[in-house]
Write a structure and sequence with these properties.
5-stranded antiparallel beta sheet; alpha+beta; 14 strands; 30% strand; 198 residues
C-alpha cells in the first residue's frame, strides 16, 4: 500500500529541528489538560477508552506563530487536493506518553458527524516534533504510528493500515474523512501539533 492511495501531502522540515526542540521543551513546562474527543449523544469530552493523550497549552505567541505557519500552506494544499479552503483552526499541541493512543476515527467532512465544527473540516494536518524509533532512543518514541485505513479495502480481516512514522518537523495532511488512528505509544514521548483546514 502506498501513500498515493491516500493522496498525502507532505512537507519535510516544515519546522526546523531547533524549533521542534523548543516546542517540546515548552510543552514539558506548559499547563496541560486531557485531550478531548466528541461523541454523539455524550456531554463528556474526555473518553480515555477512545483517546488517551495530553493537550499542552503553550504561550499565545507560540500558538499564533504556528497558526501563521500553517496558514502559509493554504495555497499548496489547495493545489494538491484540488479544494478551495477558507481557514485553518488554531493548532492543538499533543504529548502521547507510553500507553497513550487514539482509536480509529475520522476528523470531519462527513454527514455522519453531529458536531458542526467537525462536519466542516476538509483537511487534517499533523506536524511531528520528534522522530519515531524502532528501539528506545533519547528524544524519540516507539509505537505511536499514525495508521491510515482505506475503507474500500475488502481484504479478509479488514483493511490493512498504512503507517506514517514520525520525523522531526514533518507535516502530513490528508482529507478529513480519512479513517486513521494513533497506535499505542510503547516508549518515550510522542509530540505532535494538529490542525484542520476548512
Amino acid at each position: 500500500m502506498s501513500s498515493s492511495l491516500f493522496n498525502l501531502f507532505t512537507s519535510r522540515n516544515f519546522l526546523d529541528a531547533q524549533t521542534c526542540r523548543d516546542l517540546m521543551a515548552e510543552g514539558r513546562s506548559s499547563p496541560t489538560t486531557r485531550a478531548p474527543v466528541y461523541i454523539q449523544g455524550s456531554d463528556e469530552v474526555v473518553h480515555e477508552t477512545i483517546r488517551k493523550t495530553t493537550s499542552f497549552h503553550p504561550s499565545d505567541a507560540t500558538v499564533s506563530q504556528i497558526h501563521d505557519r500553517l496558514l502559509q500552506q493554504k495555497s499548496a494544499l489547495e493545489t494538491h487536493f484540488g479544494l478551495r479552503l477558507t481557514d485553518c483552526e488554531p493548532p492543538q499541541f499533543l504529548r502521547y506518553e507510553p500507553g497513550d493512543f487514539f482509536v480509529r476515527h475520522q476528523d470531519g467532512n462527513t454527514e455522519q458527524l453531529e458536531f458542526d465544527h467537525l462536519r466542516i473540516r476538509r483537511l487534517s494536518l499533523i506536524v511531528f516534533l520528534n522522530d519515531y524509533a524502532a528501539e528506545p532512543k533519547e528524544n524519540c518514541y516507539c509505537g505511536g504510528a499514525l495508521n491510515l485505513y482505506n475503507e474500500n479495502d475488502d481484504s479478509a480481516g479488514g483493511p490493512a493500515p498504512f503507517a506514517v512514522l514520525g520525523q522531526t518537523g514533518l507535516l502530513v495532511a490528508f482529507t478529513a474523512d480519512t479513517v486513521h488512528e494513533v497506535a499505542s505509544v510503547t516508549s518515550g514521548e510522542r509530540f505532535t501539533i494538529i490542525s484542520w483546514f476548512r
